[in-house]
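During the no-cost extension, the postdoctoral fellow (Dr. R.K.) reprocessed legacy sequence entries with the updated structure-token encoder. One reprocessed record is reproduced below for audit purposes.
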Amino acid sequence: MNEKINFSFNLNERYLPYEANLKRGFWGGIAALLLFLFMVPTALLLTLRTFFDDAAFIVVISLMSQLAMGVSVLCFLRGGTPLKKTLELGEWKASYIVVGVAGAAVFILLGEVVQQIYFWAADLLGVNLRDKSHIEILMLDMDWQGVAVLGVAAILVAPVVEEILFRRVIFGYLAGKVPWVVSLVITSVIFGLIHTEIRTLPGLILLGAGFQLVYLWQKSLYPAIIMHFANNVSAFIIMVLVKYNVIGEL
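Re-encoded structure tokens follow.
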């Protein structure tokens, strides 16, 4: 924890040895992202109209899409160099837990400040952004099996798949082509947009930037995955407590 904080991206160490892998992962990952997060779910929902109003069914589609996307990206990344090295999943350090959890706490608070400013600006423009998000509406409509599936998707699958794709693959490839700060901004904006939630977009972009900075600082995906995990766990617990009337709406 006494290590000097350095957010720079060393091309010679973190890009050039994995350039071919990251290039395959980038283009394959973008294709997989469009296919499995947008085209496939849309096609299934349009085809299986009987299930359209079933919130749990929508979550199952999301889970399967994320898993398929993750497997696809890993397949594109393989070859040339060991996959673990390409993903910067080297030696495990206990300090990653502290960094990840602390980072999540900091960016949850910062995100809340940004969201309130965003809501305030929207109110001034006469735009209502204070209604429930689509994931909150889904949560309220689901039975316990659907809640369990959502928990698996949000807590176990999303942090791993999204950190590999965004933090290492998309950012890593773009950082070899443009300044790393530009790559960080592009990656964070894409990360926010793929969640298709205008209501929380600024907070999601900020969160994506936070994951990226922790990854850059620690030179490992582990703390970014833990940070993502901690963020999703906290959000999921709050939604469960609201759903079962343990606490009121925040």
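The two ends are 34 Å apart (CA to CA). The chain has a mean pLDDT of 87. The remaining legacy entries will be reprocessed before the final report is submitted.
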